[in-house]
Amino acid sequence: MTNEPTAPTLDNLHEQQAPFALWIDGVGGYLVCLSHRVTLGQALTENPVDIALIADVSRHHATIQRDPEGYFLEAVRKVHMNGKKIDKALLRSTDRITLGNSCQLQFWQPVPVSTSARLDIVSGHRFAEPVQAAILMADTLVIGPSTQSHIHVPDMTQPLILFRTKSGLAARWPGEMQIAGKTVRDRGPLEPGTTLATDQISLALEKIR
């Protein structure tokens, strides 16, 4: 008798889509959002949003939705894009988003072959988590020496790729990796709470909520 794979439960699906923190030694921290729809707003414990901001913005100020056409920014409260007030707009790389009167973020899609994107705060405000940027992860997240990487690490000589699988996340590296203390070659599974190290980079994934 064979064991049939069980379908993922709603709780498992939610957990697989929950944001997590990615900490890279010597580089910094990044908030990685896996859902195709993310909410942005003020950092409040009683009303958490996917991307929480320490800024004068509303509890739920805007939403970014990824679909086959790209990323759409939808205003819930006052939002400007490149200086123009919008209700809904398609985002392009380098677009500047202003939430409320002063909280500004810049949207980037630095990797031509990836639909993942990055949000940087450019107004002096902060994310609720002690991170440098938020990554809107589609299929892949590229960490590497090229400026066309989601996370630029100039000391590396080749990229480390995080990618989605049917069961979660995995990493790809041309050589040996230590994942959760075990040696794997070329690729291996990842989950929040896991550490990964190569001869060029070490990082940890942390569940944040």
Keywords:
209 residues; mainly beta; Tumour Suppressor Smad4; 15-stranded mixed beta sheet; six-stranded mixed beta sheet; 4% helix; disordered N terminus
Write a structural description.
The longest helix has 8 residues, at 10-17. The chain has 209 residues and is mainly beta. It contains 1 helix and 21 strands. The strands form 2 sheets. It has a 15-stranded mixed β-sheet that branches. It has one domain (15-207): Tumour Suppressor Smad4 (Sandwich), CATH 2.60.200.20. Mean pLDDT is 91; it is low at 1-15. It is globular, with a radius of gyration of 18 Å.
- Which topology does CATH recognise? Tumour Suppressor Smad4
In the CATH hierarchy, the architecture is Sandwich
Unreliable segments of 5+ consecutive residues: 1-15
pLDDT averaged over residues:
91
> How far is it from the N-terminal to the C-terminal residue, by CA?
38 Å
Helix content: under 10%
What order do the helices and strands follow? HEEEEEEEEEEEEEEEEEEEEE
What is the β-strand count?
21
Radius of gyration: 18 Å
Please indicate the count of domains: 1
Outline:
Helix content is 4%, strand content 50%.
Write the layout of secondary structure elements.
Elements: H1 10-17, E1 20-24, E2 28-33, E3 37-42, E4 51-54, E5 62-67, E6 70-75, E7 79-81, E8 84-85, E9 88-90, E10 96-99, E11 103-108, E12 117-121, E13 126-127, E14 133-136, E15 140-144, E16 151-152, E17 160-165, E18 168-179, E19 182-190, E20 195-197, E21 202-207
Parallel strand pairs: 2-14, 3-4, 15-16
Antiparallel strand pairs: 1-2, 1-21, 3-5, 4-13, 5-6, 6-9, 7-8, 7-10, 10-11, 11-12, 12-14, 15-17, 17-18, 18-19, 18-20, 20-21
